[in-house]
Every structure is written in structure tokens, then in C-alpha cells.
């Protein structure tokens, strides 16, 4: 493969920037911070985990509703970067705001977290759609995988700084409270995210678009309505989105609920932070490996590999008892989480017409985010009914099974990409 271009590297670098949010806010520090605040307020472990799941569901529902509409409007010339900037600003701002909310206000923390999540996920809709503007179809698997690989590598730096501050505060080496140390981590995340997004703003531009026309909002709704009516005609695209709906639900739920699950099992916050750090380090080369193997065995084959690994994760999680068990589980997740997400993004990008990329990535988002409502709700409800978090995690295996069955029916990408370009 030829050297990566400035546009490709700038696009990849945004994964480096925003992955700090993914690990520190979505996965590690904030969930632990919230769990501690909820416990102090007298909320049981199972209920606080359920409330976090419900919050994730609310955030994803909001974005699932907005995604296709905004994506359709953003297909007009010059709109993609504007929408990206808008959601990016919301995400960074409310991530920073988490540092200024009193730690005993667990409900306010969840509200701010919800808005930050909408901003982060909203920016990602348009960021993902920019892949058609920065590279060719032939290079998409490796460019997408490189993005996730760099994301994992980049996220480790602010994560190391954050956990170092938290651990030093726990050991009273630093003269600050653990609460303040966690809030500093939130600020580090916002600063890191904003600073390293600069190449994306400078070097990535919308190359494929629809020419502007009168009444763009009205016409966007008309185009969206037409797409909704006709999407079933495009078998490969529809089947892929349906399969993606199920398996990515399980992937996202495992990622967002992992620290809450570990806390319920009695694993110390210090151990969880270290495990999550190592997970990021291990995930980076595996994400890039998935991209290279996809060139040899096809993206669809490697998606099946990732799904099988996650089915093993769900089964193993049910019997998980010790910190060592959690280590093993984390390494299994690390081997596939970046790869399955990267190849899903690049496979879908190959299927959609480039000038309508935002509109179709809006549907990609709505399928992914509506799915992300179901997973956390499934875990939350099951945890409350059984009183055991591991039962909720195990129930996610059903989503991977359904996703795999549907993916079997999706035509192989080499045979189907050309046919899919007839969409629109």
C-alpha cells in the first residue's frame, strides 16, 4: 500500500483525538466516578448500573432520530464540516463541564454525560462519512483500521496521565482528593480532544456533495423520504445494516458497560483502570491487523471472526469471578473491538454513493444507535430482574447470533460493491 496522504492522515488523527473521550469518559474514569457518586447517594450497584444503561439508551435515541435528517442536509456543498463542528463543540464543551459538577449530584452528572455523548457520537457520524472524501474504495479497509489503531494508541497517553493522577491521589502522594483527580481527567480529555482535532479541521474537506438548491431543508426531507421508501430495493445495503444493527449493539454495550460490570464484580477501580489501559495498547495492533487481513480474506470474513470472538466474550463473562478472569475477558475484547468497528465502517462506505454519504451514514448511525438502545436496556433490565450483572452481559450473545445469521446472507463485497453503486 502506498504512503498515506495528508488528507488520510488528518482524518485518521481525529480518531487519535476523540478516542480519549471513548476511554476516559465512556469506558473508564467517568463510569467509576459516577458509580462512586451513586453509591454515596444510597443507590444499589445493580440500580446504578441500570441507570447508566438507561442514560446511554437516551443519548443514542436522541442521535438516532437526528442522524438521518442532519445527514441528508449535510450532503449539500459545505454543510458536512459545519455539522461536524457543531457536534464536536457540544461534545468537547460538556466533557469539560463534567469537571465542574459537584460529585454528589449524580443525576446532573448523567445529564451532562448524555449531552456530551450526543456531541461525541454526532461528530462521529460526519467524521465517518468523510472517509469517502479522503481516500479511495481500495484503501478504505486499511485507512479505517488505521484510524481505530491510532485511536487506541492515542487514547493511552491522556489515559496514562489521568490514571497516574488518580492513583497518586489515592495513595495520597498528590495532595488532592480522588474526586478532584477524576475531574482533572475530564479536563485533560476535553483539551486533548480539541487540540488534536486541528488537522481534521485544516486538511479534510467535503469533495463529494450535492449542489445547493432553494429550500434545502424541505428538499432534504423529500430526499430522505425517497431513500426510506427505496432502501429495501438495495438488498446488500439493507441486509448489511440489519446485521450491523444486531452485532454492533453487542459490541457497543460491552464497551460502555465494562467498567460498571467490573465494579459490580468487586474488582478495584485501580485494577480496572490498569486493565483498560492494557486493553487499549493491545487493541491498537489488532485493529490494524484486521485491516490487513481484510485485504487478504475479505472484510466480511473478518467481521465473522470478530463476531465469534464476542460470542466467546459473552459466554466467558457469565462465569467471570476473579480479576484474572476479567483480564482474560479484556484481552479477548481487545483482539476484536477495533477491527469489527473499522471494517463495518469501511464495508458500508464502499456500498454507499459518495455524493450521498452523509445521508447514508445517517442511516448507518440510526441502525447503530437504535441498536445501542436495546443492548444497555437488555443489560439493565436483566441485571435488575436477576440481581446479577453477569446475566445481563451473557444475554448479549443473542444479538451476535442474530447478527451473524443475517450477515451470512449479505453478498461478498467483491461481488456486490458494483451492484450496490446503483443505489440512488
UniProtKB/TrEMBL annotation:
GO CC field? plasma membrane
Membrane topology per the entry is: Multi-pass membrane protein
Its domain of life? Bacteria
The cross-references to SUPFAM superfamilies, in alphabetical order and at most eight, read:
MFS general substrate transporter
Q: Where are the transmembrane segments?
A: 12-34, 54-76, 83-101, 107-127, 148-167, 173-194, 237-261, 267-290, 302-320, 326-348, 360-381, 393-412
**Pfam families in the cross-refs:** ATG22
Q: Where is the Major facilitator superfamily (MFS) profile domain?
A: 236-424
**Chief localization class?**
membrane
Keyword terms of this UniProt record = Membrane, Transmembrane, Transmembrane helix, Transport
Query: What PROSITE patterns does the record tag this protein with?
Result: MFS
Q: Where in the cell is it found?
A: Cell membrane
- Spell out the protein name for this chain: MFS transporter
User: What organism is recorded for this protein?
Assistant: Heyndrickxia shackletonii
Amino acid at each position: 500500500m502506498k504512503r498515506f496522504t495528508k488528507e488520510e492522515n488528518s482524518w485518521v488523527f481525529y480518531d487519535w483525538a476523540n478516542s480519549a473521550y471513548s476511554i476516559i469518559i465512556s469506558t473508564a474514569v467517568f463510569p467509576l466516578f459516577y458509580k462512586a457518586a451513586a453509591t454515596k447517594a444510597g443507590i444499589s450497584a445493580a440500580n446504578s448500573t441500570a441507570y447508566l444503561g438507561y442514560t446511554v439508551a437516551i443519548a443514542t435515541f436522541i442521535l438516532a432520530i437526528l442522524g438521518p435528517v442532519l445527514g441528508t442536509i449535510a450532503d449539500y456543498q459545505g454543510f458536512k464540516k459545519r455539522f461536524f463542528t457543531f457536534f464536536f463543540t457540544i461534545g468537547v464543551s460538556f466533557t469539560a463541564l463534567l469537571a465542574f459538577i459537584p460529585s454528589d449530584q449524580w443525576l446532573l452528572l448523567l445529564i451532562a454525560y448524555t449531552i456530551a455523548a450526543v456531541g461525541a457520537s454526532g461528530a462521529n457520524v460526519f467524521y465517518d462519512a468523510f472517509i469517502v472524501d479522503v481516500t479511495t474504495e481500495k484503501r478504505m479497509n486499511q485507512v479505517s483500521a488505521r484510524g481505530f489503531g491510532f485511536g487506541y494508541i492515542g487514547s493511552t497517553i491522556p489515559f496514562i496521565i489521568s490514571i497516574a493522577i488518580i492513583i497518586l491521589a489515592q495513595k495520597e502522594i498528590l495532595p488532592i482528593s480522588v474526586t478532584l483527580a477524576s475531574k482533572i481527567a475530564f479536563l485533560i480529555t476535553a483539551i486533548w480532544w480539541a487540540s488534536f482535532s486541528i488537522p481534521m479541521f485544516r486538511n479534510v474537506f467535503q469533495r463529494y456533495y450535492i449542489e445547493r438548491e432553494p429550500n434545502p431543508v424541505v428538499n432534504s426531507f423529500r430526499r430522505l423520504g425517497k431513500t426510506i421508501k427505496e432502501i429495501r430495493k438495495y438488498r446488500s445495503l439493507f441486509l448489511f445494516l440489519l446485521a450491523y444493527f444486531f452485532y454492533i449493539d453487542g459490541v457497543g454495550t460491552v464497551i460502555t458497560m465494562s467498567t460498571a460490570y467490573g465494579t459490580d464484580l468487586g474488582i478495584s477501580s485501580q485494577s480496572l483502570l490498569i486493565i483498560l489501559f492494557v486493553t487499549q495498547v493491545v487493541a491498537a495492533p489488532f485493529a490494524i491487523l484486521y485491516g490487513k487481513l481484510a485485504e487478504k480474506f475479505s472484510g466480511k470474513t473478518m467481521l465473522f471472526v470478530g463476531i465469534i470472538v464476542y460470542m466467546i466474550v459473552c459466554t466467558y463473562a457469565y462465569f467471570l469471578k476473579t480479576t484474572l478472569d476479567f483480564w482474560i475477558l479484556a484481552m479477548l475484547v481487545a483482539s476484536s473491538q477495533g477491527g469489527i468497528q473499522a471494517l463495518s465502517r469501511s464495508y458500508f462506505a464502499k456500498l454507499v454513493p459518495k455524493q450521498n454519504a452523509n445521508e447514508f451514514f445517517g442511516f448507518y448511525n440510526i441502525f447503530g444507535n437504535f441498536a445501542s438502545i436495546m443492548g444497555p436496556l437488555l443489560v439493565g433490565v436483566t441485571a435488575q430482574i436477576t440481581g446479577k450483572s453477569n446475566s445481563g452481559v451473557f444475554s448479549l450473545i443473542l444479538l451476535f447470533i442474530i447478527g451473524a445469521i443475517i450477515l451470512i446472507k449479505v453478498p461478498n463485497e467483491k461481488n456486490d460493491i458494483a451492484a450496490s453503486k446503483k443505489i440512488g
